[in-house]
Design brief:
Number of helices: 21
Order of helices and strands: HEHHHHHEEEEEHHHHHHHHHHHHHHH
Structural class: alpha+beta
Largest sheet: 6 strands, mixed
Strand content: 5-15%
Helix content: 55-70%
Distance between the termini: 39 Å
Length: 418
């Protein structure tokens, strides 16, 4: 399997009981149009009374969230979320289930206290060398949002965006009230609702009458959905595809069912993975999470210009992100278009000087072009700027020519005493 951009923990958005993040945005922020492919969460009368925070208040909240992630403080992240508001969006609009709704809310919040959820996922990946960064203030569904970018570690590469709706209850504090997750293409409240529906229907006959046709169909096949998730957990990937093949097409096109299919197919072979991504594209054209998937699919299929076009569409949705220039540079590196690798990497560094991945792209070009003076310069810069320590480069195949050069010997001499 080629290295993929597709997030290794995409299952997180589909099956975890507890995730944690969302966004803010109006006034000067970028405008984000709602997607027809994304189910809108339930809006209660109370939520319609929420007040709009100022831009400065949104940025202050974003800074607190970024600091909490960097400090590995899951409690601080969770404290920035209005779980009552998020759970109301997840469970509202269903008749006769008030006691079930209360029990569900207690269960979710108890799961948070026991250390489950996106906050702990983010912290674990930051610990492993990933990054979590506030990008910008924008507007989503006429509400302010703060957009965060997650980059996985070198051992667990990946990319995701978390767009967090921010609101203030009348005369209350400002909190995150929902999170749109790019790799699942939906709000977290919609993910939680999918977990709530079968519980509600099992406890109240009247609940079924309140569901949409799509929700009723999902509940009907909830056992198969659970079997697919369990098979993924047990690494029974072919069983996942077998269960999927027996579902009616109306259920096969469900985004979360397709995510489980993708997750399993990714672990089998490129043909199965490409077939699964083709199905996703067929059933959800224009979905916000599709281009992250297509970047990967086109790389596997050696359709690099199409992969670059998918990056461009994602960049337009995000509203500009220097890290997407790093992805462009990596695609151009595969194409051996070294001039464009340097163009995109240098542009990324200018926009965001701490993007270490852009410097590594330039190292790769210097090695490919046998520009070993530049290789040495970049290695020294990586050591000085990012305090990166290097192993014995003679054991790394990509450096096989460099280690024979006088520039390598000079670089080794310069490292003595450090």
């Amino acid at each position: 399997m080629s290295e993929t951009i597709f997030r290794r923990n995409v299952l997180c958005g589909t099956c975890l009981i507890v995730m944690v993040l969302a966004g803010c945005g109006k006034n000067e922020g970028d405008k984000v149009e709602p997607s027809d492919a994304t189910d809108a969460p339930f809006e209660s009368e109370a939520s319609k009374q929420w007040e709009t925070p100022t831009d400065d208040e949104c940025r202050e909240l974003a800074e607190k969230l970024e600091l909490a992630a960097q400090s590995r403080d899951a409690d601080a992240i969770n404290d920035l979320i209005d779980w009552e508001a998020l759970l109301n969006r997840a469970t509202g609009g269903i008749d006769g289930v008030e006691s079930v709704r209360r029990e569900f809310a207690v269960g979710v919040q108890d799961s948070i206290r026991r250390g489950n959820g996106l906050a702990h996922e983010v912290i674990a990946d930051v610990d492993a060398g990933g990054s979590y960064r506030f990008l910008k203030l924008r507007v989503r569904d006429d509400r302010k949002s703060i957009l965060f970018r997650f980059i996985g570690s070198k051992e667990s590469p990946g990319l995701a965006y978390h767009d967090m709706l921010v609101a203030r209850k009348p005369r209350g504090t400002i909190r995150i009230v929902d999170v749109y997750i790019s790799t699942t293409g939906e709000f977290f409240s919609s993910t939680l609702r999918r977990l709530f529906l079968p519980v509600a229907v099992s406890k109240s006959r009247s609940a079924l009458q309140s569901l949409t046709n799509k929700e009723s169909e999902f509940v009907k096949y909830i056992d198969q959905f659970g079997q697919m998730g369990l098979a993924v957990k047990r690494k029974q990937f072919r069983r996942v595809l077998q269960i999927y093949s027996r579902l009616p097409e109306s259920v096969q096109k469900d985004k979360n069912i397709l995510m489980l299919r993708l997750l399993a197919a990714k672990e089998l072979d490129d043909e199965a993975y490409l077939d699964a991504m083709g199905a996703f594209q067929k059933y959800h054209p224009g979905d916000p999470c599709l281009d992250i998937i297509l970047i990967d699919a086109f790389i596997i299929n050696e359709e690099y210009d199409k992969s670059l076009a998918a990056v461009d569409r994602l960049d337009e949705w995000v509203g500009g992100d220097a890290y997407l220039d790093v992805i462009r540079s990596n695609i151009c590196l595969i194409k051996e278009d070294y001039a464009k690798v340097k163009k995109y990497a240098e542009r990324a560094i200018k926009a965001e000087p701490t993007l270490v991945e852009a410097y590594w792209a330039l190292v790769d070009v210097s090695l490919a072009e046998s520009n070993f003076e530049e290789t040495s310069r970049l290695l020294r810069l990586l050591n000085d700027k990012f305090e990166i320590e290097f192993d014995d480069l003679t054991t790394v195949p990509e450096y096989s020519e460099y280690v024979k050069s006088p520039q390598h010997r000079e670089w080794l001499e310069s490292r003595k005493g450090k």
